[in-house]
């Protein structure tokens, strides 16, 4: 290597190292200030705390609970009234079961919407960290291009391209921060926890241990199925009351027609619920498989990063190369987080479809 080459290489290395040190110190200071500010002003909540708060504050849940209290009182009165006819007693009993199903459904829907809002906020927060690292990598690329241009090893176009890439990364970072604010506001609205709420971390989703057939056995508790069954019971009673010698034949015929329609309604509700359940169950199974793939990719990226860290110590790669490896690891971690969140969201959707809480959050609803 001649003297000119040595001088050029030395200038490049020293320039990049100095820029990296300055950028790292500035970034560390900014991160420290930002983290301190967030810690002082923004409450961190877990997924469990968010769901608990939402169930306590959701307007639909409160309304459904009030309707159930009213229906229970009406049913007790009807069953205790010696003058109440059988149709009235059946209607009151059906009203209570319908109100119970509606309350359960409202709770399940609140669970799902809160889980979705929580995972959206968590991913938005992690995306800020990812885009911050991306902008840092692109900033160093600009510095490298400028140093190379200064020693005649890069063109002005190379510098311009690097700057354009950095500008795009900075815009992505600004967008990511805006998404955090929007997601936080959404979760705050659902939970009533106040503004500036932040997700404390990923929730651990339980394994899907139950079978599809077991879940199908509980579909009769769904709101649509309960309503259809109530209609069927009322139609059966009307046929029974009309099937005698003192009721016009046309009344009995109409009652039987209504009974046939009610039976078709039950069948239709059952098929719809079964199909929705099967689809949600398959989606949940798929989400577990995708999480496994994402986990394997994260493990591979971590292995590569650790190898590159060792290579940096041995002097075979630069800190710029290591940061590129770090970015790849960060991206794989973000993808794994998304896959983990998808599992929880799929379980929440399956909970709505089955009428049973399978998320491990919020207890028995």
Automatic annotation (TrEMBL):
Its domain of life reads: Bacteria
Q: Which UniProt keyword terms apply here?
A: Cell outer membrane, Membrane, Signal, Transmembrane, Transmembrane beta strand, Transport
Gene Ontology MF terms = efflux transmembrane transporter activity; porin activity
Where's it found, cell-wise?
Cell outer membrane
Return the GO cellular component terms, semicolon-separated.
cell outer membrane; efflux pump complex
Q: Which residues form the signal peptide?
A: 1-23
Q: Which family does it belong to?
A: Belongs to the outer membrane factor (OMF) (TC 1.B.17) family.
Name of this chain's protein: Outer membrane efflux protein
């Amino acid at each position: 290597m001649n003297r000119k080459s040595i001088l050029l290489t030395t200038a490049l290395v020293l320039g990049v190292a100095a820029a990296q040190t300055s950028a790292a110190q500035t970034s560390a200071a900014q991160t420290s200030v930002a983290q301190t500010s967030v810690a002082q002003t923004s409450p961190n909540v877990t997924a469990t705390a968010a769901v608990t708060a939402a169930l306590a504050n959701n307007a639909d849940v409160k309304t459904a609970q009030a309707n159930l209290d009213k229906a229970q009182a009406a049913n007790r009165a009807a069953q205790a009234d010696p003058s109440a006819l059988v149709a009235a007693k059946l209607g009151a009993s059906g009203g209570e079961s319908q109100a119970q199903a509606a309350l359960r459904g409202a709770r399940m829907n609140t669970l799902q919407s809160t889980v979705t809002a929580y995972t959206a906020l968590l991913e938005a927060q992690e995306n800020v960290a990812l885009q911050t690292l991306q902008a840092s990598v692109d900033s160093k690329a600009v510095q490298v291009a400028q140093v190379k241009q200064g020693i005649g090893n890069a063109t002005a176009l190379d510098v311009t391209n690097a700057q354009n890439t950095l500008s795009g990364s900075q815009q992505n970072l600004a967008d990511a921060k805006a998404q955090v604010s929007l997601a936080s506001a959404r979760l705050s609205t659902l939970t009533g926890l106040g503004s500036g709420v932040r997700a404390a971390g990923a929730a651990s989703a339980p394994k899907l241990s139950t079978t599809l057939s077991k879940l199908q056995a509980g579909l009769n508790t769904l709101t649509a199925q309960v309503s259809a069954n109530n209609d069927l019971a009322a139609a059966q009673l009307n046929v029974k009351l009309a099937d005698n010698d003192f009721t016009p034949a046309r009344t009995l015929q109409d009652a039987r027609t209504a009974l046939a329609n009610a039976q078709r309604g039950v069948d239709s509700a059952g098929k719809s619920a079964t199909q929705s359940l099967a689809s949600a169950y398959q989606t949940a199974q798929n989400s577990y498989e995708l999480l496994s793939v994402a986990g394997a990719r994260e493990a591979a990226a971590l292995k590569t990063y650790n190898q590159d860290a060792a290579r940096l110590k041995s002097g075979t790669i630069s800190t710029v190369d290591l940061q590129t490896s770090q970015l790849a690891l960060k991206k794989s971690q973000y993808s794994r987080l998304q896959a983990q969140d998808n599992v929880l969201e799929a379980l929440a959707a399956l909970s709505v479809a089955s009428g049973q809480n399978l998320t491990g959050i919020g207890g028995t609803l």
